[in-house]
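Entry, Tuesday afternoon. Goal for today is a structural model of the target with zinc ion bound, before we commit to ordering more compound. Inputs were pasted exactly as handed over by J.K., no edits. I checked the ligand SMILES twice against the vendor sheet because last time a stereocentre got dropped in transcription.
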Amino acid sequence: METNSSSGSLLNKRLQKELMSMQREPSPGVSINSHTLHGNSLSQWIIDMEGAEGTLYEGEKFQLLFKFSSKYPFDSPEVTFVGPNIPVNPHVYSNGHICLSILTEDWSPALSVQAVCLSIVSMLSSCKEKKRPPDNTLYVKTCSKNPKKTKWWYHDDSV
Amino acid sequence: MPETDDKSEDTATFECNICLDTAKNAVISMCGHLFCWPCLYQWLETRPQGQVCPVCKAGISRDKVIPLYGRGGSKTDPREKLPPRPQGHRTEPEADYAGPGGGHRYVFGDNPHFLSFGIGAFPFGFFASSFNLAGGAGNPMEHQHRDAAGPADHQMQDQLVSKLFLWLACIFLLWLLMA
Ligand SMILES: [Zn+2]
Ligand SMILES: [Zn+2]
């Protein structure tokens, strides 16, 4: 359908551009998993992330899953930690959901995968004590699969 | 490839902050951030309340952006044109996009020529009938009926009838001249 392809081309063009710029100028500790590049759809990306040096997460490896809806970049991507190692952090639930305001209400289409990754790196880096969020058990039991459906309460304890 | 790198840095200044492409129908916000009008419009539609600049979160609104006109380009205010809109908007429950007269807005893919016509029932009827007279096979108005099977046949019939009348009129004129 015409209308789908015109909005779809903005989505794909933009994801292509983001992909290219991340490959051209990668940020330290953030890289695109090669699985992302297989298959022709760009609607899901896996990002490999390394804990920054000199932080509690130094030497740890994490994986982030980005899912893009057809309304990206007007709609925020769905971002969760996946894989065997979910960082232990007051803003990361044990099911991989992340409590970060730019992923929901503070999202802006001028943000990008790279910007989100950098925010997550800095969120981890500023952590002073490795622990789960206080409501982790309850949340993980009751939450929706999609973290964007969670009505987040951004506890403002400056991480 | 140092050459292409230089180039991309030169043009990056004029890239839209939303689609990351060179800004088309460019507008600039009071805070100095550049966007394609269709891109910014779509963002403003996404957030009817608390509209902010995607880059710096300064307040922003339709009336507070300035259209940019390059040399030789179109002199029409990009805000007057109806920007392309994703199909999702039409199916959403809040029905504030369909006007009081039940007018529809359509987007014709990469054919910007039609964007300015797609609003309200009247222009549609007008264009539809003029296209029928022209009787082209690749009628762009067929997008209108892409979900329904029936109407296309009706269009064909209408075309036949109008062509028949055209021929009758010609024959009548000829007969008048001969007589
Ligand atoms: Zn744009
Ligand atoms: Zn701004």
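Chain B has a mean pLDDT of 64.
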